[in-house]
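Write out the 3D structure for:
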Amino acid sequence: MQKPQIIAICNQKGGVGKTTCALNIAAGLTILGKKVLVVDFDPQAHLTYSFNIGAHDLKKTIYSVIKGEASLQETLIEHNGLKLLPANLDLTLVETEFATAPKREYILKNILTNIADVQYVIIDCPPASGFLTINALTCCHEIYIPLQMEFLALKGMSRLLSLIGEVKKSLNKELLVPRIIANRFDSRKKLNNAIMEKVLERFGRQVFNTIVRENIAVAEAPSFAQSIFEYAPKSHGAEDYLNLCKEIIKPQ
């Protein structure tokens, strides 16, 4: 079987909708008939909680797999047609425990090397540029950057792009040019429109054509442990995320 496409959802700035994007992209790809594994690689475990799973109670997580205390297959959780590799706060221990390990940047890549029966792997990265994020960037083929049309969100992009450039140069030469997801866009706000113009001017075709509009249902859905497709299937949010997923699977 062809190797899966591994996509890291990444942004060093918190609160940009990164986990929401990971959840809804995974769900949307599943609706479109794709076999999806979503990896929670954030110690906060917001993605795991979004699947109505008590991360704090889990005995087997991605940390267990990294430590060699559990296999990947016995750790995966099936949920609404897709697979979840969950996390919890134990994941914070990895950076110190593997501080002197050889090739420590390849830990996640080695775990995902033999993943079977999956077409897409979606990795939810932590909002930081440390060890976990570098592992995710080292093993992925593509990076999607959720970006709100706000001044401070755009301000931090140069640091993230610099990190991506360093990883591509030294750890993952096959890494593709990152793609930008315009997220929580409100066309009624002058600032949103002004920042959007700057983003398109700077990044051009790297920006997905689909814009994820500001939608209260998208914000509410995780609190009910649901994707937007379960919570409000007829909402603008569901429409936007499904269109985004169609764009993802369409050959460029």
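The CA atoms of residues 2 and 85 lie 20 Å apart.
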